[in-house]
From TrEMBL:
Protein family membership: Belongs to the sulfatase family.
Keyword Flavoprotein in record: no
Domain Sulfatase N-terminal span(s) in chain numbering: 42-362
Any one GO molecular function term: arylsulfatase activity
InterPro entries: Alkaline_phosphatase_core_sf, Sulfatase, Sulfatase_CS, Sulfatase_N, TAT_signal
Keywords: Calcium, Hydrolase, Metal-binding, Signal
Taxonomic source organism: Edaphobacter dinghuensis
Record carries keyword Heme: no
Signal peptide feature range: 1-24
Protein name stated in the entry: Acetylglucosamine-6-sulfatase
CDD domains per UniProt: sulfatase_like
Superkingdom, natural source: Bacteria
Amino acid sequence: MAVNRRNFLLGTAAAAAQAGVAAALPVGAKSEGAEQAGKRKPNIILYLSDQFRWDFVGANGLNGSTNTPNLDALAAHGKNFTHAVTNQPVCAPARSVLMTGRYATETNVWHNGPALTTELPTLAGELRKAGYTSNLIGKWHLAPAKESDGGGPGYVKPEYRGGFLDLWEGANALEHTTHPYEGTIYDGDGKAITFKDQYRVDFITDRAERFLRQKQEKPFFLFVSQLEPHQQNDWKRMVGPKGSAERFINAAVPADLREQPGDWHQQLPDYYGACESIDASVGRLRKVLEEEGMADNTIFAFISDHGCHFMTRNEEYKRSTHNSSVRIPLIIQGPGFEGAQQIPELFGIINVAPTLLDAVGVKVPESMKGKSILPLLNDAKAREAWPNKELIQISESMTGRTIRTKEWTYCVADPTGLRAATSNNYHEYQMYDQRNDPHELMNLAGRKEYRAKAAELREELKKLIVASGEPEPEIVEAKLYP
């Protein structure tokens, strides 16, 4: 077994005494105490896998075909947040929420294409202010999409990097500068870094390992942003590593897909293979942390920006209010997140940045509307008081708003087909009973037996919309039961 930082520190009586004192303190005090004792703040790795379904993590117990031993091990030693949802189920808007702790309508990225506003504090920027380096490897998707606006799919100018001003090895739209076995990303100066005859996940992982093997003078924040298992856009399909699709040809079909038309029949084998490669990548990086003596002082968070419904709910893969679109994996292990625990409370991706800042003792900016979820780990009263409701904004496929609770999904949409940042006129569109219909096969919108519950959810949704900074809209009751 490699000698890690903890084993080395515990080799002296003085260090052991310090560790004992720190362990007896609550999370925030522990971080402060460690700093006073000369210990560096914990590193943070935020590992994002694009379009990774929550039920494809083996530890969540819903998929016997998925092969994720490394994610399962992460959950077995850390906190598995089993009811995390995205607040905007499409790539760039979700990332903007993740980085700012604000809603997509407040970040300027309410749909794919616009640049992230420079006016809001970001997770990377706040960590840099606190003495961290902020580093990105992989996909960004928060710079302007058009070259005429100073952006494009490839190189990202420093002003559009959201505070990632140390190591930068990425592309704004990785799906447009690379293919599964070849392509280009760009360093901070715009120099091309190319790969060929290597699976894209492995290439990104190699770059992350290269960073982790280097001597780190400061605590670091590393954002590893993979494209897989997202489809290769110009090929219009998912692509797993060579040979993986054949191995998964008869893999399990999730229950929410089986009764629905879509392209899951063709795509699932490659999707399984891509998810398996992501898991192997996580395992590699965790092993590097052990070998470099950083495992015990690094927070490792695995997350996705949204799920995937394989064209069963609309004409592509997300952008809907359904669990297959909005439920995401979130597993965090490391200082403050030790010990296996499932957290069943419902919360949105908007809470991730405040949580990570809180976990390392960095003040959460007042601008962030998300809340730290650390109290849910050890405080029964905090769990009882948690609201268990989230606002989900839908764009591009339609202009819609959803309230998601543990028990219900209630969605409204602009009936004109408007595709805009917001609307003042919504009609009831979808309503699902999560307890009796978790696969969302029966839309209850407009059914008279649920009229009272729909009215209650409508008023709660209006409150969330106003809290997000939008004006209170009119919501018209559904007249017909489909």
